């Protein structure tokens, strides 16, 4: 029994994405430590450790061939950076110019994609590590190749471990990404179920806002999963395992579209069916489906079969019985709302089928178009075009690329002006703390200072408790592992851990106590420089570009609506163009949520439009949910006359109206608050007679809901455009 429990615990640990990462780091750090002890060359320890850290920070997901290629590029960049620091170190003016130019160019490489950005970031960090190493020698440059060779050797050691790991366990990241995706989808469905609480006076807007924020997490998980699968597929035909994961990804996309769709005004449903159990049954089904997605996540993560719960059929039958009971009462006031409830029931039934399909994705037919959009540059022309597009003061990346060199130059000047002990840690702190946005920098600044203080106190205490050099070495390795496991989620803890690791490593070759105050002073000064740079030099106040973000959200919704209309015209097809339009609309919705979250972290004067922004987010997410509802039923066949009226007429008009509001927002042009044409169209679309076919009625109702969203969107857009731009 104990062995079975132990086996289950190990499987659960193995399923965690951070566990594999921590094992690689542990092997790399332990191997380097063992080599230094065996050779009795503890002076090699620090550069080897720093090389491992820099390479691990430069790592991104890829298949083993891609990771090997990335490792080769990383080692070349590391070698050039380390040698350049060694050779230019004795010439401060030339060094300062080279530091500024290199940090600008490396930051701009982020325009080419995550992989290039990570390698550039790791290269910048390794160059600062080289400065620290030269400074430890008193600035003497004797064997200029020695320190770079050790740093690159540490990086190569970790990189080869990473490539070997990827060769042996290539599909593990895909499983972890899919598990994360279905877990977020499960949370989204459970949040969506809270909208069906039959409580009068329920704050629907607050729940929609929470739903929009969770939607951002689902979109991020979808994007991450797509990239990971794309790295395994490339331009080749996917193998059987990857094909299975691809089908699960497409199922998740369909679940997301169905889950984010709306066919009804929630307050009207609550008022009409307050004394009925139908809303409870809808809520129960959605909650069960959310739990099923979370169970599927667990099955994927633990590599166990997903067993579909047969109770869903009973819950679905209960919902149908409730709907039939309401229909038999023949209440004229309920007629249109009952149609919405029937559409909801059909949507829940399809969700049920999609989750059921996930229990055996191999049985599903291959999609007619299973291509994924690869956004990485294909040639030098693509590289140049990407960089050129970012070379503008309105680009957040370009502003950060100008700000970071300035901050590093100020840090370098401080090193030479006040000559602090271990002064190059000032520059290292600035690199870590200086982020593209004020909000992110402010949070990172506080976490860095608090984490460093905790790490210094912990290190000071451990020096007295752990006196054995070998035990101190083990503490350094464990602290390094803790740093990597927590660096993206608990930055304060990871900073404390890396501080402890540095103290113990330096204590192996010198006096660790002598680092306590210099480390604290350098952290405070480096953090202050980063904070002032972001606040004073080309600050990216979110309010300045709020109109652009809102405009992009509406523009993407307009494109999505046009793609849906094409699907109704030509027949349902999950082709790349449709999936891309859908994904862009959700990405824009998530980007707006992120922008508003960042705005709340800014000083009060710069976030005065946050309230308008959040109200706009609720409206735009509601609009997107109505579009998703329309897209979810795009297999509907419409008669030619109806098609001409609804698709070519109303659909095209609504897409043009959304696009017009987006254009006015982007250009800060006056927005017409009232549109008589849209009001007339909404009234016309809401005239749903009993003679209409169910398919036409559903499409017409969705278009009416979309049309009714335009008036409040126009009001908020007009209010925002009238406001003076933040200083």
Describe what this molecule looks like in 3D.
Among the domains are: 11-170, no CATH class; 172-208 and 242-363, no CATH class; 542-722, Four Helix Bundle (Hemerythrin (Met), subunit A), CATH 1.20.120. Helix 3 crosses helix 7. It has 727 residues and is mainly α. Helices cover 76% and strands 0% of the residues.
Question: How is the topology of this model organized?
Answer:
Elements: H1 2-15, H2 17-39, H3 45-57, H4 64-88, H5 92-108, H6 114-136, H7 146-168, H8 172-193, H9 204-233, H10 240-259, H11 266-272, H12 278-302, H13 311-328, H14 335-357, H15 380-390, H16 396-418, H17 424-433, H18 438-465, H19 469-486, H20 491-509, H21 516-536, H22 546-570, H23 576-599, H24 610-632, H25 640-667, H26 676-685, H27 694-722
Task: Give the SSE order as H and E letters.
Answer: HHHHHHHHHHHHHHHHHHHHHHHHHHH
The structural class is mainly alpha
- Taking pLDDT < 50 over at least 5 consecutive residues as the criterion, the unreliable ranges are none
- According to CATH, what is the topology of the domain at 542-722? Four Helix Bundle (Hemerythrin (Met), subunit A)
Distance between the termini: 67 Å
Mean pLDDT: 84
Strand content: under 5%
DSSP strand count: 0
Assign the CATH class of the domain at 542-722.
Mainly Alpha
What composes the largest sheet? none
Radius of gyration, in Å, reads 29 Å
**Global geometry:** globular
CATH architecture of the domain at 542-722: Up-down Bundle
Number of helices: 27
The percentage helix is: over 70%
